[in-house]
Amino acid sequence: MRLGLDFDNTLISYDTLFRQVALDKGLVPQETAPQKNAVRDYLRQQDREDEWTRLQGEVYGGRILEAAPYPGMRDTLAHIATHGVPMVIVSHKTRYPYLGERWDLHAAARSWLEKHGFHAEDGLNWQQEQVFFELSKEEKIARIVAQQCTHYVDDLPEILDMLPDTVHKILFSPDGNVTPKAGWTVMSDWQQLPGLLKLA
Fold first, then answer.
1. 79: phi > 0 → left, psi -120 to 50 → alpha, else beta; which?
2. pLDDT at residue 98, as a whole number
3. Is the predicted pLDDT of residue 179 greater than 90, yes or no?
4. What separation in angstroms does the CA of 152 have from each of 6, 35, 39, 42, 184?
5. Is the distance from CB of 64 to CB of 111 less than 8 angstroms?
6. What are phi and psi of 119, to 5 degrees?
7. What is the C-alpha to C-alpha distance for residues 172 and 156, in angstroms, rounded to an integer?
8. What CATH architecture is 3-12+69-196?
9. Which of these, 23, 39, 72, 114, is most buried using a 10 Å CB contact count?
10. What is the mean pLDDT of residues 87-101?
11. Taking the domains of the chain in order of start, what are their residue ranges?
12. Cβ neighbourhood burial of 96 (10 Å; 0-12, 13-18, 19+)
């Protein structure tokens, strides 16, 4: 077994942060729900797509360290590691935002992993070589295959759809609002993952 993991909206939750940054900038009303899609939908209804694009750059770049890990994620990965399961993060992420300040989004994501103990000896103790940020979806898929992942967790059905059938596809859907395809496994909570992998 070799476990592959997405990063954005899988390990890390941006919902509350998107709302907060949008409020800080006066882009959305106070009653906007603390969900990334609620912020996106509001701005698109206002025909402010460029503001949405700039907002993403700020959240994924300058303010990423304010984003929370999904509950139970770190403890679950630590538990899986005790079973000797090799793990990698493979994420599709542009290097710089399309609009706004020129944050290095790869470096920002790696800083978040550092903050949450992924590379600390007294944390998860991962090597830098276990983390891959790819510039396109196609390169992401190629990396997952090259890493010989037997299982892969992602929140985007379109990514799981692109993977070969040799990979066991696990859809992370904390809200339960995404319909999986036949043969996929659905994970709504990180604490479910060891059981889905048939680990004790």
1. alpha
2. 87
3. no
4. 8, 24, 28, 32, 10
5. yes
6. -105, 0
7. 8
8. 3-Layer(aba) Sandwich (3.40)
9. 39
10. 93
11. 3-12+69-196, 15-66
12. middle
